[in-house]
Specification:
Elements lengths: L2 H8 L5 H4 L2 H8 L5 H30 L9 H4 L4 H23 L6 H23 L7 H17 L6 H25 L1 H4 L7 H5 L2 E3 L2 E3 L2 H23 L7 H22 L6 H22 L1 H4 L1 H18 L13
Antiparallel strand pairs: 1-2
């Protein structure tokens, strides 16, 4: 792996198209469509995500060395030094606040913008706690989920007062990150988490691997599916309970996408054999379907063009940048 590929892998470049989008969607929910401001929010979202991932790799490098499959991580292999990783993480924080300054330039810092800054600070604190102590604290997945939720709220509060759609998407963002970390991550890494002394919901619930057999207790399955079902309920609430307009074809597409998320969630939770490649494939498929739910829900509010752009952008970004890190499509290794 060359240096460029090593740094692209460390920074999680292929995934940033989706990981950096929450503050952009937050702003869109309060009626912001100005590309300059949305671009600044995307950069802030990207810097926030990179800060968290690189800090996590920096903290966990010694533990990662214990696991054979993680030897290809840039810090573990030595292609990038811990010192450089820490510097990247700190610079991301500095540049995030620089871009926040550009975002607010020329506008008074009122109560909403003050709340926005408070949200991004809370996101940094919660995310940092998770990255430094998360493997030792059961339930810390709730902290990282809340962290991403606050990044989303930052985007909304930077431009206006949150509305019911904003709060629904906030809950969806929280739910999605909770499922991604606690359920998907818990299953994907169950074969080596116990070696690293990890204490998480999956291990505490009894998820384990014996040889090639994967055991997922009913309680953990119910936990995972309850998160997913609540998310499906949330995407229909604007139309069922709050009188937002919709098209029949929109609800049909939303129903199909939601069904796809539920289907692959069930497939993941029903696995009997531990095969990381299959697990990754199910996770990647869920991710793309999951990312599409909010834009489809927003069609009647922001139009087909913006919704389509929000759906396609993370996918195109992933397809373009994945070869840069030498990964196979839909089979991320980190």
């Amino acid at each position: 792996m060359g240096k460029v590929a090593a740094y692209a892998k460390l920074l999680r470049i292929p995934g940033l198209g989706g990981l950096a989008i929450p503050p952009v969607i937050g702003a869109i929910t309060v009626g912001v469509f100005d590309l300059y401001h949305l671009f600044l929010l995307f950069v802030i979202g990207a810097l926030s995500a990179i800060y968290g991932f690189v800090l996590n790799d920096y903290v966990d490098v010694e533990l990662d060395r214990l696991v054979k499959e993680l030897q290809g991580k840039p810090l573990v292999s030595g292609e990038i030094s811990r010192k450089n990783a820490l510097m990247i993480s700190l610079l991301c924080m500095v540049f995030a606040f620089l871009f926040i300054f550009l975002l607010f330039k020329g506008r008074a810092v009122d109560d909403l913008r003050f709340a926005a800054v408070l949200c991004i600070v809370l996101a940094a604190v919660l995310g940092s706690f998770y990255n430094v102590y998360g493997k030792k604290v059961v339930g810390s997945d709730f902290f990282v989920a809340a962290s991403m939720g606050f990044v989303f709220l930052f985007g909304a509060l930077s431009f206006g007062k949150p509305n019911i759609i904003t709060w629904i998407v906030f809950l969806l963002t929280f739910n999605n990150l909770l499922h991604m970390n606690a359920v998907e991550g818990g299953i994907k890494d169950v074969d080596h988490d116990h070696i690293m002394g990890v204490r998480n919901i999956a291990l505490l619930s009894g998820v384990r691997v014996e040889g090639k057999k994967l055991f997922i207790p009913t309680g953990f399955k119910m936990f995972g599916m309850s998160i997913r079902l609540f998310s499906v309920f949330l995407v229909f609430t604007p139309f069922v309970f709050f009188g937002y307009s919709y098209s029949v074809w929109q609800l049909l597409i939303l129903g199909l996408a939601a069904s796809g998320v539920l289907f692959f969630s069930i497939k993941l939770l029903s696995l009997k054999t531990f095969d990381r490649n299959i697990i990754r494939r199910f996770i990647a498929t869920q991710s793309f379907l999951r990312y599409s739910l909010v834009p489809i829900m927003l069609i009647s509010m922001i139009g087909v063009m913006y919704s389509t752009a929000l759906i396609l952008f993370p996918m195109i970004w992933y397809l373009v940048f994945t070869p840069l890190v030498g990964e196979k499509l839909f089979r991320p290794r980190m």
